[in-house]
Amino acid sequence: MNILQVTNKVPFPTKDGGAIACMNLTKGFYELGNKVTVLAMNTLKHHVRADEIPDEIKKLATFIFVDVPARINAFEALINLIFSRRPYNAVRFIDQNFSKNLQQLLTENQFDIIQLEGLYVLPYIPVIRKYSEATVVYRAHNVEFEIWERAAKLAHGFKKFYLQNLSKRIRRFEKQLLNTYDLLVPITARDGDILDKLGNKQDKQVSQTGIDSSKLIPDFSTIEFPSLFHMGSLEWAPNQEGVVWFIENCWTEIHNSYPDLKFYVAGRNAPQWLIDKLNVEGVIFEGEVADAYQFMNSKAVMVVPLFSGSGMRIKIVEGMALGKSIVSTSIGAEGIHVTNGKNVLIANDAHEFIDAVSGLISDKGYFKEIGENASLFIRQNFDNLAITEKLIAFYKQYTK
User: 283-311: buried (b, 16+ CB within 10 Å) or exposed (e) per residue?
Assistant: First the structure.
């Protein structure tokens, strides 16, 4: 099949969940013998030069980058709040130049499947309908309004009001775009159920983000036991909130009980206010690490204190594949179908987090058991090629 993936962000480097979800499927499509084109918005925030893409990635697809500013401007956000009913998050990605490039691409090529990666590229469906007869797929990486709805519950003052307003706008926006596509492919079954309740009537198939087991190999030769770590994009508000919550509500008691224990925080684009918050005894801010898998292999217990967000946390899947013992909130582990106490530990308040962490770092046998079960679970359920093959079979039912 000839497949076009459309995304509002260049899916390279693969250092966040969205990029990983897009690129892993690109790789799966390619390995199964499909022709792939990736049309991506090249935004100011995540700008990538074409010559930065390594040859091993270039061979997977034809990559077309279109400059779209999508800048975040406080004044523009305020004007949008006062004079518009559309969500500011969405209007930033509606761009005439991108529309023209999409039109040209569709005029010059015939695609079987056009897979739209996420909510913010759905507004381009009218262009696709006008210039292509391809089957249009909405790949829902998450339920977008839920991210902001949950964030609003944790906020205060004007920020709470703004996020509540934004979540309502995104919910309305999301609902208006339902069924404008032909097929729905949510990354988690839970997200699919929510979108069905919201009004989706189109056929759907859940297709979670897979992993390449050949690259995610557990290595305990350099592990620092005991140690704690958190890894994820530190420009993402849910990760920022979670790390600060853990330090303020759990770390002092844990550190008092285990004075030599270190808590490593790794991730890119941390704002200065967060770096200042991490200036606590026993907490080591690593920033962006050169090799994420090497870093994760060198540390012991992964903590994921997420209380907002939506979709599936790829870093948990990767951590489990590497045999990490993970303590996560229920929200953090959504969509992965883990078993609490067997392949991950679930904790939803400070007391539960402290108990779970203490249990793992005080009992190395228990720590190893949880990690081994985690690695086995991911290898049995998240193989990228098997997941892609199943998705292709689903697509073939709806193409000529």
Answer: bebbeebeebbeebbbbbbbbbbbbbbbb
Report, as an integer, the average pLDDT of 56-61.
Answer: 94
Global pTM value: 0.87
| 38 vs 16: CA distance, rounded Å | 17
> Within its chain, how far is the Cα of 372 from the centroid?
24
Q: Dump pLDDT digits (tens) for 205-239.
A: 999 999 888 888 899 999 999 999 999 989 888 89
Q: Which domains does the chain have, with CATH numbers?
A: 2-210+383-396 (3.40.50.2000), 228-381 (3.40.50.2000)
Q: How remote is the C-alpha of 11 from its chain's centroid?
A: 11
Q: Residues 303, 230: contact at Cβ < 8 Å? A: yes
- C-alpha 192/C-alpha 303 separation (Å) is 27
Give, in order, the Cα–Cα distances in Å from 66 to each of 152, 157, 280, 358. 33, 38, 42, 49
User: Terminal CA-to-CA distance of the chain, rounded, Å?
Assistant: 10
Beta strand 345-346 with 113-117 is unpaired
